[in-house]
Amino acid sequence: MADSDNSDSSDDFIGPPVPKQYSADISSKNQTGSSKTKEKDSSDEDSDIIGPPIPQQYKSTTDKSSKIGGNESSEEDDELIGPPIPQQFKSTKDDFIGPPVPKRISEEKSKPSIDKLKISSSNQESSDEEEEDDNDDDEEDDIKLKIPLQCEISIAHGNKAINALAVDPAGARLATGSIDYEVKFWDFAGMDNTLQSFRSMNPCGNHPIKGLQYSTTGDTILLVSGMSQAKVLDRDGHELMECVKGDQYIADMSRTKGHTAPLTSGCWHPRVRDEFLTSSEDSTCRLWDVKKPFSQKNVIKCRAQNGLKTTPTTCTFSRDGNLVVCACIDGSIQMWDYRKMFVNTSQLLRNAHQQGSEISSISFSYQGNLFVSRSCDETLKLWDLRAFKKPVNVVKGLFSRYSTTDCTFSPDDSLVMTGKSLDRGENEGKLFFFDGKTLDPVKDVIVADSHTIRMLWHPRLQQIFVGCGDGTVKIYYDDKKSMRGAKLCAKKTRTKTKQMEVVSAQQIITPHALPMFRQDKPKSNRKKLEKERLDPIKSQRPDLPIKSGQGGRVAASGSTLSSYVIRNLGLSKKIEDDQDPREAILRYAKAAAEDPYWITPAYSKTQPETIFQKNEQDDDDESNDEPANKKQKL
User: Fold this and answer.
1) Which strands sit side by side in the sheet containing 323-328, from one edge to the other?
2) How far is Cα 309 from Cα 303, in angstroms, rounded to an integer?
3) C-alpha closest to that of 334 among 284, 368, 291
4) 96-100, 112-116, 118-122, 392-396: which has the highest mean pLDDT?
5) pLDDT tens column, 482-505
6) How far apart are CA 549 and CA 291, in angstroms?
7) 513 in helix, strand or coil?
8) How far apart are CA 528 and CA 508, in angstroms?
9) Are 421 and 451 in contact (CB under 8 A)?
10) Residues 263 and 280 sit within 8 Å (Cβ to Cβ)
11) How, if at all, do strands 183-187 and 199-201 pair?
12) How many Å apart are CA 203 and CA 231, to the nearest integer?
């Protein structure tokens, strides 16, 4: 049997002859006691081998693995390409690359429990939540770092509330206006740490200042007060233009040349240099040109829902200047397209705020799609022009006492800033910062012990200006992020003016010195000043007042008819009080009869013939010719 099996296996084998050492091993294995099935399998496997046989050292490992793994391991070994895996690495997982895993750890990993899986999943979820919270906290910290609140200085305007606040685009000058009718100008480069204004003025008499705004070029300032006429000033406060006042007795407001009621707000056009907008209590908004102050450019009428007049409380332009926006006392926000006729509104929203409450401010974002509105109904609302029917978000509980309380966006539109007035029982005026998209509260700052009314975040200086109800202006800045502005004067010490010290030289009297070496005697200036005082040119004496009569400039020169007549008539001599005026006049009667110069020659050519006077003279002549004995007629 053995010979037959060997002969069969040798006949089936194709290739070079098998070496003796391998053939002996094969024959010895075949002779060992084994089942017929094993012999058939081994004979089949040997018959299927193509090429030289597998070395003995590798064949033993493959046999062991086939015994342990069964059919699956044998299939995996057949598919293996290359040299076999070493024994120390083969006990670990096939996918693992690297040194072998210790036995204890491999056993624990091989039998994971359900509790461990649950704990690991819960730990993973908690770690994800913590990462999200950390990210939110980091974002909030980044936003807070954007607010320049590191340093603070205070400028004292007066004792009354600050209703107007403006900084020029370059950030060099600050203008403040108050209820005390005063406007003050501050120059950061020229101030020191005493913070004194360089100009103070009352441009509108006894009318409170309601608004100040620099133009886009910074060379002019728009001044809005309680009067019906807006004014335009230059950088130094000198008046350049005053709007004309309209006729109060004309019912149609489009027929008047100007406002007829006190102003409520005003602003410059962001793109057109010499054009600005004003709103008034006469229910109109008017566009003006600086070069044409005697009449407005356009008239916009504000109407309530019932078609009657409504008072606009604030007005502004969009960032691109294509929209004219007005908020009214009936709670509506009305918009007109600047490029079209101001007849119908392009967008209109009724009941945007509570009816009867003044909307104090409207501010657009720098991107232009969003804007915020602040009202005296204690709300701050965020709006989107693309969906204007409902507000995006609302913040409540912001008490406002003044109709000029501001709200504004940060330069990067990430924050919204507004202030709050003091309510009963409160003693801290705060400045609030909200998220620019969701109006979530980010930070609040205690500003003063009074109301916070006006606020401005300058995009170039990176400084925040806040006008308070106690007449002070708070300026917040950061040493690293802020530029110029208040930083120029905050640390500048005041320098004293240098006084010149003059040493008076002692006068040496030398009476016998030669004239060329003799010093003049010191003369007192008193006599010299007295002489100059008598000289009308050196003393700059004003002209004497004009008198009706003699002695005045006009009478002395004889340039008027009355002075000429008085001088030529010889009546310039004064008439004494005790002299009879009748005698003074009759003194010239004989001379006037002999030489009639004034009256008779003037009427000699135009006077009619004296008929009745001649008849009387004829009758006298006839009476003289009659005889003396003629009887007289009865």
Assistant:
1) 312-317, 323-328, 333-337, 347-349
2) 5
3) 284
4) 392-396
5) 888 888 888 888 776 666 555 556
6) 47
7) coil
8) 24
9) yes
10) yes
11) antiparallel
12) 9
CA distance readout (Å), 536 to 344, 380, 532, 544, 554: 69, 69, 8, 11, 19
Instruction: Report the relative pairing of strands 263-268 and 275-280 from DSSP bridges.
Output: antiparallel
Q: What is the DSSP letter of 456?
A: E
**What residues does 176 pair with on adjacent strands?**
165, 184
The SS3 assignment for 128 reads helix
CB 560 within 8 A of CB 582: no
∠ Cα 15 20 21 (to 5°): 115
Task: Please give the torsion angle defined by the CA atoms of residues 548, 554, 558 and 563, in that order, rounded to the nearest 10 degrees.
Answer: -10
453, 163 contact by CB (below 8 A): yes
Q: How many C-beta atoms lie closer than 10 Å to residue 596's C-beta?
A: 13
257, two tokens: 């040349």
Per-residue confidence (pLDDT) for residue 70, from 0 to 100: 45
Residue 602 has which token pair? 């003037």
DSSP class of residue 203?
Answer: T
Predicted confidence at residue 230, as pLDDT, reads 95
Hey, is 185 helix, strand or coil?
strand
- Bridge partners of 299? 286
Structure-token match 């008047």, residue found: 256
Question: Which of 433, 366, 398 shows the shortest CA–CA distance to 148?
Answer: 433
Location of structure tokens 């993973």: 124
Q: CB of 518 within 8 A of CB of 507? A: no
Q: Whole-model pTM?
A: 0.59
> To 10 degrees, what angle do helices 2-12 and 36-48 make?
30
**170's tokens:** 């370059």
Could you tell me which residues are beta bridge partners of residue 268? 276
Residue type, 466: V
* Amino acid code (one letter) for 283: S
